[in-house]
Amino acid sequence: MAETELKYGKDPKMRKLAQDIIKAQKGEIEQMNKWLDSQK
């Protein structure tokens, strides 16, 4: 959803929120992938 906001959204506040969400989730996804790799 956040990526769609960046692609089509016009509201600067919502675009900033979308950027913040993507940034936070990328870190969380990376952390989860590292944990999953350690469980193999």
Automatic annotation (TrEMBL):
Domain DUF305 intervals: 1-38
InterPro entries, per database record: DUF305_CopM-like (IPR005183), Ferritin-like (IPR012347)
Pfam families with a match to the protein in the record: DUF305
Domain of life: Bacteria
Protein name: DUF305 domain-containing protein
Gene source species: Escherichia coli H386
